[in-house]
Fold these 4 entries.
Entry 1:
Amino acid sequence: MSSQKRVKDSQAQKRTSQGSDTYETNLLAGEEKEDLNDSKRSLKHGQDNIAEDYGHADDQGEDALQIAVRYFEKGPIKTSQSKDKILEKHLKTVENVAWKNGLAPEGIDILLNVALSGKFGSAVNTRILKCMIPTTLIPEDSVVKAVSWLCVGKCSGSTKVLFYRWLVAMFDFIDHKDQINLLYGFFFASLQDDALCPYVCHLLYLLTRKENVKPFRVRKLLDLQAKMGMQPHLQALLSLYKFFAPTLISVSLPARKKIYFKNSENLWKAALFAVRQRNQGPPPEPLKLMLGPAQVHPVKRKWNSCSVIPVLNSSSCSKECGKKGMTLSDYLSSNGSFPLEQLKSFPQLLQNIHCLELPSQMGAVLNNSLLLHYINCVKDESILLRLYHWLSQTLQEECIWYKMNNYEHGKEFTNFLDTIIRAECFLQEGFYSCETFLYKSLPLWDGFCCRSQFLQLVSWIPFSSFSELKPLLFDHLAQLFFTSTIYFKCSVLQSLKELLQNWLLWLSADIHMKPVMNSPLETTLGGSMNSVSELIQYVGRLSTTAMRLENNSTFLLHFILDFYEKVCDIYINYNLPLVVLFPLGIFYSALLSLDSSILNQLCYIMHRYRNNLTAAKKNELVQKTKSEFNFSSKTYQEFNHYLTAMVGCLWTSKPFQKGLYIDPEVLEKTGIAEYKNSLNLVHHPALLNYAVSFLLQEWPEERTVSMSSIRGKKWNWYLDYLFSEGLQGLKLFIRSSIHHSSVP
Amino acid sequence: MDSYDTSESTPRHSASSRLKDYFIGATPLQKRLESVRKLTSFIPTPPRRKIPQCSQLQEDNDPQKVAFLLHKQWTLYSLTPLYKFSYTNLKEYSRLLSAFIAAEKQKGLAVEVGEDFNIKVTFSTLLGMKGTQRDSEAFLVQILSKSQLPSENREHKVLWTGWFCCIFGDSLLETVSEDFTCVPLFLANGAETNTAIVGTWFQKTFDCYFSPLAINAFNLSWMAAMWTACKMDQYMAATEFLWSVPCSPQSLDISYAIHPEDAKALWDSVHKTPGEVTQEEVDLFMDCLYSHFHRHFKIHLSATRLVRVSTSVASAHTDGKIKILCHKYLIGVLAYLTELAIFQID
């Protein structure tokens, strides 16, 4: 083959290879291009070694490599006496480059040809094969050409073995496998050779696709098994066949983990690592199939499930059994559905969504994000029912507090719940099974076991009528809430906040779909809003009581205010007609808190309430039609009450007159003379230390610190100081709610 | 927690609450959820049940097969609906299941489906074994050993038997689509390893789920009352109760046997509603037994745990084992077991 031709060939091949495989990721395509440049460069060097380019040492090495490659390509020189020496020199060159940087596709192509064509002796072939290490990828064509040499019978048995080992080890780096798969029959026939059998089995294991599994091959393998007995490599291949064709063959692997294939990679361990490093991105994934579930979960716990979540298996069995009178020809003609085992990417899912084979056990989707996408959009009720039944029963079976004194599977149950929660987060939707599981198990829950998981499940309860959920769930939760530690209370509030958020997101997305649906069951937006509002009120009641139980704990109050940070923004953030204010108990606890961050958070929430209410008012004025969702004047009054109380305390130093009213006589009895000032921005217990720091910083020479001196201009400086100290909520509140004419 | 009951009630009908209904209307899954909600929010079992009537077997039943089911101890399982199960494919299922069992028995050795093994699996329907026409047909699965000797009477030895049935399972039927076959009750007799293999195969093939069906003391009392209430021409066995006292190092069992006619007389004295059994009557019946025992032995049986009930109709153990003795009340017994199984898979 002339080098001219080679160029053409290789370019043509590049073109086809770039065009054909649509599933290659961009990353890989990019690498391929780079690779192409690489090979061109090395090719150029090979072509015109007259253009002496001695620029770099590396280039020198590469030139030597080109010479060596050409030497091997031409074949051994018969006459030369020093041929051994030259051969050795060239071999060394190739080996050095290969182990250092890997060989370009061109080099591999030529050298593979050399090694398998038998031009040199067996020892040389072995050495060449051992250094067939790619820089990044191996072109499929080279492999195909190499395989064609196997038919000619020019290479020895040991070379063949080595070639197969090499193929298995480098399998991941072969750029495409479609052509190679066409040679499936040839490889399969090589199983006859006892020496080759283990390696061919391994190769077939990597190569087999569903369409390769045919009855005659099954029979052949069974014959081999009969001849050779239970061989681990045969077992592996057979079980793969069973995986694809459960109606043809049955095998069950021993529970104990076992090595099924001799390690072909050993020879190239360091090199493989280097190539992977060079490739960086993930190699084109070969099918990762399980050798039966036993391998994943070595401990067989009970017959019902080797592992909690079933292994992904396509449902060929029940489907084909469903057809009456399945014949051999049915089997031989592929039925055009897309096998699950090949589903690797989202575009594939989109292309084959109409003909996707579904797993035989629907529970397997939990571990597969692509299938989760699928069940998320599928309308087929039976798919959801299958998942529902499986998940309900599994939760019930695995739930540890159902089993008396049986906490040994606790870890497993926790992991299972984590998997479910991951899936729910991924789908942004709760499963019905989990909801029913909560109904059943919450009354029996100790509030301790799997707490984090359990509360996360609560936050994924699908949107529902609150009054319906209350006796099933929220009443039980309240009991636990009141009788548990402060940390439990905080966790519950946290998960209720997430629940509220999930409901709001769901509703706000749903509102826009509403007009298209016509359902016999009427559900009004007003009804939904009622439910949300009841949830908020429920949390309000929990919070108020909890504050009393926990002695106005600041820590708890943070969690409560976090919840209201969600609540105050419903109208604007979720475009839903709902504004619910916090209860008095929470408002005053926050206003009179000793913690500045609480006060700051309160200010922020008040600011957001104001914005939401103003926006709502504006919309009401614009469109007078939607009278259903006008907020009652009560909401506005309530807000104004809070606002007056806050301004009275913090700003105008007139507390306890409007809003929070306390009889002056009572106040006198406290014996505090200057009670009026005592809650303003300067004297408020949460801010007092800011005021002191402010004075010390601005007037360090002053002997005494006079709080009351902060007024007029100083008051404004003081405000700026507070804002600069990070009290952003306060800033927003003052900017929006207080007109600056009223500086005290 | 009534203390913070919201006074404003939502005006909407309960079923209309889910926005998801917009998409799917009242789907089976929807009904499922509704039924679970109902079950969880109220008392799990209805306060009254019918006393089993005389033979309710449909006329086309096979007496030989029915007789085969009696006097054997069955382990109970609940089973979620089978997906894409077809009664026309029973032959094919036999082939596949025998190959599966053969492969499981000789771990690691692959077998061809349809090959001749030393075991044989048969699937057959149990005609007439249903409560209503809507109930799925019951079916029987057997593992038989093939004798190596080609003797004249090729009588296969039965290694394992299991059967699937649904008696008055309407409530379940309503909540699944037609791709599913509802046989919520599974009964097995034979080595548990075989049950495991068969169960695994069913789970993999029809995407269903088997769970052991235990019978709690509450339901055992119901069984005791309902079975005592059955009219018998002749009693074959004593009415016997077994209580377990949890004490270390070994638990103590208290057995309490009564002449069946005495038990019936006691029942008749507490029984008021004709043809039905109510929760009140069950409680009263058991209380009478307790107080009688207390009078003699000064032991409060109510503080112990009822673990077994045997009558002439059937005997049941809390572990989920049952033996049906009386042909006449077979359907009645199975109907209650189906109810329990459905409750478990709901």
Note: The two ends of chain A are 97 Å apart (CA to CA).
Entry 2:
Amino acid sequence: MGRRTRSAAAMAIVPLLLLSFFHLLQFVSSTQEIRVLSAEKRIDLTSPIARVFLTLKVENYGAPEVPEILIAFSPTESEHLAILKASTVEGKRKKKTYVPLSVSPVSSPDAPNGAQLYSVTLRSPLQSGETTTVEALYVLTHSLEPFPTEISQSEPQLVYYRDSATILSPYTIVEQTVYIKTPSSKVESYTKVEPTARSGSETRYGPYHDRLPYSFSPVIVHFENNNPFAVVEELVREIEISHWGNLQIRDHYRLKHAGARHKGVFSRTIAALGYFYWVYDTYAKHPCRLDYQFRQSLSASFKTLLAMLPPRVHSVYYRDDIGNISSSHLRINSQKSELEIEPRYPLFGGWKATFTIGYGLPLQDFLFESSDGRRYLNFSFGCPLIETVVDDLTVKVILPEGSRNPTAAVPFPVNQHLEMTYSYLDVVGRTTLVLQKRNVVPEHNYPFQVYYDFNPIFMLAEPLMLVSSVFLFFVAYIAYVHIDLSIRRPLKTNS
Amino acid sequence: MPQPLNLNRIHRWGLQSPPASHRLLPCLIQPSMADPSEAKGEGSLRKAFGGVLGVFILLLIGTLAFSIRLFSVIKYESVIHEFDPYFNYRVTQFLTKNGIYDFWNWFDDRTWYYLENMSTYCKNSDLDIVFELMLLVILDRYPLGRVIGGTVYPGLTLTAGSIWWLLNNLNIPLSVETVCVFTAPIFSANAAWATYLLTKAPSHQFEVKGTGAGLTAAALLAMVPSYISRSVAGSYDNEAVAIFALIFTFYLYIKTLNTGSLFYATLNALSYFYMVCSWGGYTFIINLIPMHVLLCIVTGRYSSRLYIAYAPLVVLGTLLASLVPVVGFNAVMTSEHFASFLVKCQEVFIILHVVAFVYYIKGILSPKMFKVAMTLVVTIGIAVCSAVLAILIALVASSPTKGWSGRSLSLLDPTYASKYIPIIASVSEHQPPTWPSYFMDINVLAFLVPAGIVACFLPLSDASSFVILYIATSVYFSGVMVRLMLVLAPAACIMSGIALSEAFDAFTRSIKFQLPKLFEASPSDAGDTNRGTQDEPTKVDNNTPTEKTEATVKERPSEKHRKKEKKKLEKGKEIKEKGKENADKVSNKPLNAKKLLVLPLEASAVAILLLIILGAFYVVHCVWAAAEAYSAPSIVLTSHSHDGLHVFDDFREAYAWLKHNTDVDDKVASWWDYGYQTTAMANRTVIVDNNTWNNTHIATVGTAMSSPEKPAWDIFNSLDVKYVLVVFGGLVGYSSDDINKFLWMVRIGGGVFPHIREPDYLRDGQYRIDAHATPTMLNCLMYKLSYYRFVETDGKGFDRVRGTEIGKKHFRLTHFEEVFTTHHWMVRIYKLKSPKNRIRGKSKKKTNPKTTSKINSNKNVKKNPWQ
């Protein structure tokens, strides 16, 4: 039962959690017979999102075959874990290819201190005495903690990053190293667990030898990170399909600067980075440009955001609940569309803004018919803003009126339910598939599919309704003109 | 006896309510030179064609009215404009979200925040703890607030709310904002159609010209700049729907007057009710209609139709009006209504009944008996009336303002407001208009109106006398307040519509009459004179002598008047053209009636050409006004330069910042102009807003702005203000900023708190902010908040609005800190520093309950330290 292997193609399907219990039974017995020969962990902290690349060389020194290996996370890490991807290397040297492996969480009641385990299913079970290399990438959000928590406008933003000098693992690790990469060489302090070395923007912990399972030695790195900590607290994407040829997207953002809070005085003369002013000169009666010399700001505030939209985008709008926001630029080429937006005001730590981006897309780029006659939408999950964390993402796929049996195929676990949306002159309403996911990072920008049945006759329902109502109006008017509704008997009068 | 015959016809029409085609019939039939034998068969076809054409033209006029108002959406964006519309928008949002019942009971605590200091009430330490807490809840944080349901004219909100509701029930997901933005253009189209109906009604006596005049007037109204200025897309204000209601009420009144139908009388009362719901200008209706009734009675035009037109309106209308909470018993109590309900109702309403009674008695008694009865009734009537009048006068005289509110007093005496009420005077739309503003707002109509008046006198009917009365009163009112130009516009359009249509009729008729002569030798006079409908020959015969004399009598003064006007406004070609046309037209009058004397062919052709040029000029002006002058939403400013359009979106930047980055319960103080916008866009409580009913409160804010930092901080702190918002245009040259409004703050503040004196802020009577400014000016809060760190932008501190370098460049703020400034520095937001950092001699301050009463202690304790 537990000895299932999955092809790479099958990986795209949401893993079956049913089997995890059986997996566990097996692992508890098999942990003793696996060890990690060498492990390397590279932590990239150059952006507000922490990305960790983990390379494990695993050996099976026991007798039974091992179909899966486990990766452990501390409770805080698993809380902030946005995505975990694993792959294995195939082929030699030049012909090296990465084959993705399926990953599923495992309930681990016996793991110490609430460590959370994830199992990586290997392509083929690891035979006794064999070794394999597994590479894992995982992304942690909200793991950089600003300290000091409040800074003034011209101060740099310093953050803490907490982790362990040794890699948390349910297996014995023979040799391991951890590298932490910071955006610059400005590191205030870091914990030393010998051997520790620092060169430039990289801090190295290790190599350490023969650490026992679940060994943990906390370290803290305090460094400067002036990246804008753009966090979308809530993003609601509405994708509306019209079989008349248009795909309408509406993204409602609630954006926050999650870095160190801004404190004290705000000043344009400090805040402005290369600002210039268009001055409406009442005397000259035309605007003229006024440039000022401004001090370079160190602060982590941000003015602009970049959204990557699909190619052939049209009728783009950018507004909030009090009207159009006039500061945006759209660049379109055949590969992609870039929308550069500025919130109404530069965002300093702790400041928030809401806005909506909407656009239309040609339907034929995204809607296809599958071999069994069903239609499916193929669209990118995730947030179009680059380098942005989304705390709470809701994707609403509004199918045309009259469509039935929607099913979604998403490459990672999401909550989904159905609801009804009523739009232009709907009678029965449009079936809407709602997908919800927490903690979304750019790595989630991965296509997903929504399959549904649709009869094209429904396209004519609304035009026919309009035509018939106009017709009825005229019929009623003709009837009204020709029917005498007065109470009196019609009299023949000679006027 | 042309009158009864005529009316009989109208009466019949009214009952049958014929489709538009019937009404169009004569105008298309009459000029036709068709064979009498063919006329019948072809006539019905032409009739149908004319009806369809008329409806089509009306539709086009509606489209024109709607689309000419969309410049603001196309050039800017679909957004609510100005100040008051933001309040209406917010109320509509509440209505659509919470429903009608909550709307009536809505107590809006986002405005007029008022902090009654507790220490005055809690000095007595024996006070029960519970009582103290109660006081804390009741008195300490007591928002003055505003009962929206009871203080707002709900017509506009309910209209937009029901449109939204209807659309939403049809599953058309338009946002409330979109509906609000487009309400005004939609109602402008309605108003144009109502104008068509109204103009058609009084010009019935011209038989054929009704439809033509109606269509012309509707087209003129669809694009009259005065109305456009209040009804562009986004200008979501009461006037947008009220002008439609006004015209429609007048139409129904005249319709009732013409038909004597109770059905229309009831509709009229309902329409009046809608007007009362919509706008305070309903008093204009309820003053104008009694005046007209009185005029009719005095000129001996009393009829049962007049009774039916007036009595139900007064009774039903007043009952309905008092249902509107904001009007309530005002409908009968205030002097603004005295004209109608008490003075005129006692006079007009009772007089009307007396007259009706007299007519009735006259009908049943013999002439002798009637004389006796007459004397008896008159004596008793006079006695009763004078008694009632005496009581009334005593009542009115006993009230302090003599029963007149400030705004209506300034109606009677235009200088009243600027003399006594600075808060009314400070609003530009309450100023008397200048001559150019007439030309700007009604353009060529101003010259066509006299011609229209003349046309209405030929002959004078009940309906046309009403229109004359309407134009006369509205001209007077528009002379008092710029804002009331709006009431003048429909009247001017109606008059000009009649004038233009009359003129065209005269010219085309003479051309038509002469064209066959050119080709054929034999004139077909007989066919021409007989081409009218059945009624016409009799009517023409009867009218001709009187009309002619009337016309010749009228001609002279009107021409003299025109000469005078010419001299006064020697502006060039257009005016001369107009003068000529009018003169032509007037001299044409009798010709029309007689249909024998015609103008020379060439003259009429030239005149038509000139009229078309005049019309084209009007259209060009209106489109320009709609596109350039009246479409700016005022919250977004744009300017063009050689490399494109630049947008100044600072107001919304500031409001969005306030909304997202301050606490929900924080109070924001600013000058009252920005109150509605702050509550609507930033959703924060404001101290004063555009509803200027509380002068003292506005004066308090004005005083704070005119005081030095410390006293200002005290005032704001006592009001529990967290943020202070000022508008500053010095960096980009935006001239309607707070520094330019500052003298009004000083004046209004000084009106209540005498220690603020205007001369302290002026150097030799001049308002200046440069190095020569007075120390009081340079130290007041407004100056400091506006120019704080301004010198850092260019090193000199050059103010682009005032065109000078500022007087005091480097200074610190002790009690306020800058928390936000927009991109172009147009809005600056400051936060009050918390008191801990400030108090040094703490015990000393504590003993003096300084912040106790913000108003009273200000008067006594606070002294201006700069003198």
Note: The first helix of chain A runs from residue 20 to 30.
Entry 3:
Amino acid sequence: MNSVGEACTELKREYDLCFNRWFAEKFLKGDSAGDPCGQLFKRYQLCVQKAIKEKDIPIEGLEFMGPSKGKTENSS
Amino acid sequence: HPWETVTTAAMRKYPNPMNPSVVGVDVLDRHVDPSGKLHSHRLLSTEWGIPSLVKSLIGTCRTRTYVQEHSVVDPVEKTMELKSCNISFTNLVSVDERLVYKPHPHEPHKTILTQEAIISVKGVSLSSYLEGLMANTISSNAKKGREALEWVIKRLNAEIEEFAASARGTMRSSMAAAAFVEK
């Protein structure tokens, strides 16, 4: 399956492989600790954000957060 | 099929031959919330069957439509909820779909899908005709959607079988090599 940004398809494939494995083998079995795909996701995300801006796609109400685990950020 | 199988397949639904118009899927955001649920926001790019002559005149950017999808997977309660809405042509029509996958309450190897769609056509006098047309399309798409997941599940099972077969092959040849060395 391709990405919206042609240049991002390869990064997407690498991330998808990692995510699909984690999802089926860990997450669905109750083990959501650890995020083995974080780095891949970041690289893929940067590419997708750029493509979305270039193609002027109207994504609403979404901050590109990256692979956080719902940790609250405390700023002092 | 069991809920885990259906959920895994739903995450990998595209591409499939029942939805040839979906040409791109991207993850915009994904995170596990404090209660352990996985949220994914995805962008689906669709390309409808516009004649290539028209496409070459107006460019593919103008024939591409987009759908935004938010899914939540709860591995403890075993529910998967998907909500999607179009983000193209919102001035003309809005299609909001909601799908929920849960294990069958009495048959644990089956999954129940509930699906609903709200369609509204804006500012067009043929609105009730168009809404009826879209309702039929969405209901036949719902059937296609189930067929699509069956297709994905078959492919996933074939992948697993292939992997197992090659693992058995590797084990046999390393056992044969070990036996040879021992002699």
Note: Chain A touches chain B at residues 1-5, 8, 12, 15-16, 19-20, 23-24, 27-30, 32, 41, 44-45, 48, 52, 55, 57-60, 62-70 (CB under 8 Å).
Entry 4:
Amino acid sequence: MLSAQGFGDPGKMKDYHYTGPVEHKFSPYAFNGGTVLAVAGEDFAIVASDTRLSEGYSIHSRDSPKCYKLTDTTVIGCSGFHGDCLTLTKIIDARLKMYKHSNNKTMTSGAIAAMLSTILYGRRFFPYYVYNIIGGLDEEGKGAVYSFDPVGSYQRDTYKAGGSASAMLQPLLDNQIGFKNMEGVEHVPLTQDKAIQLVKDVFISAAERDVYTGDALRVCVITKEGINEQTIPLRKD
Amino acid sequence: MALQDLCNFQDIFQDSLTKLCFLGTFEKNTACDYVSSLSTRSSTSLFNFYIPAAEYLDESPIQFGQISNIQSSSAISSQESILSPSSLPTSLPFASSQSVPLPFPMSHGTTTLAFMFQGGVLAAADTRSSCSGLVACPASQKILPIHSHLVGTTSGTSADCALWKRILARELRLYQLRHGRRLSTRGAAKLLSHMLHPFKGTELCVAATLCGWDGGEVDDGCHAGTVIDLRGRGGTTKSEMTDQEKYLDTLNEKVSLPETQSSTFSEQYFARKKVSFSGPGLFYVCSDGTRLQGTLFSVGSGSPYAYSILDQGVRWGLTVDEATSIAREAVYRATYRDAYSGNCVDIYHITSNGWTRRTREDLKEEYYREKERRRHEGRGRQDVTVSE
């Protein structure tokens, strides 16, 4: 269905005043919005995402969460172009199954991260337009967060925000979890309850200021007992 | 299998029978990508890339599938084998096809530097990874160790640098296992340059300096009788040599040999037919094809500022501490002036024992220290003028 914006620059609103002759070209990408966040604690990890799926001025769905469970100890959050998110998660699931069948054990978070990096780089010349963040527990049981760029560059972090509101959320996380840019503050390690509360507050702020974030928040808490999911409502406008 | 093709996964135990069955069933399909990709894929390719067919991207999806001449170029893997580096893959439509316009920016902008001195090789870099205005990561690692005696600084797109370093590390390890010795820094630079050559003209952007220490190991197949102690060399030749060569001379105690040699040893060395260089090596490799040897390099958007500090201070005879402080100062000045460099500084030092890493230092503290110093100096100057 041809949307009102046409095939303009994905993610930006089309100018409705006359700017001169414009060449229209089919773009294989679309920007479907959404924000993903992951925080790693001492023995837990949290992956949270909003559930709004939008394109330009329209909202396609209010119930499209962006966290996907990969194994009992790993959850991935993908935001960007929904078509590529779906295909990428299918490919990751398939590769996980193949690994399980040939090696008789489930992939660890670090191994999934390294594998995802090569999957993404394999499409270096026609990238998956997806911002990935993997959250899970590493082999020692500590929380781990791996953040990726669309072509496969990755590293392990303590916290990371990705997606449309990432530029707004990342400084807030730097300040609250990393205690950056503050003087004379005691560095308290993050507890699970405080982390969940912080994630909820951070998403409420994101929904206020970013049009592509809202509707509901899906939080997945990963501990050694398993993965616990909660859904919290957000602004629907 | 569709799954294998989609995931570019190669089962090592895939037997030829199943391959033939697939070829048989898919033969009738004219728009078949599987046949070409199954037959052209081999286990010696370095990396399988998905290259989009430009024709499919030009057409809008409504007319998809009505194109008359269907090219099977959409799932071709790039065939680079180190066994035949001269066979460039002809199926890559890179330079001619228009690449897909990307909706997101890539990470760029950095300051990295490396230089050689009497204590080995020193490599330093900042840690900011920026993405057209946004700092994507304030704590990225731009100096990646490749093996125990080789370290590479990365500049350009971080994904490209990280992946190509991994591929290089894999190839060097295979070389070491096959030949029983580590590949020299010069060889590693040549290997990297040849691996990147097929992608010349594409948007791949890698500018790396390889800093390493070669040799120091006994070559395989060398006989004990030919091991010569070079410390007993004639005193007359020493005065003609430069600092660098004198250093290499004192270093080489075993079979390795520096470039200049006196005639008394020539017979025995030529009989061995193997001359290997031992010592530090520094090479700059770029994805546009440049491969240079040198003693001082600085790469990135902050490199002009770093060069000014380095050209002023770097000499062969520096001590390790002096060299570290010059490198640190150079990165600090570059981060001060260049918007795309910043945050912390990483310093790696490579000697004959391998590489050592200095703890990452946040340059924010340095700014405040400098401000304090300036303030004290200003006050001192004021006192002097008052008393006069």
Note: Chain A has one domain: 35-234.
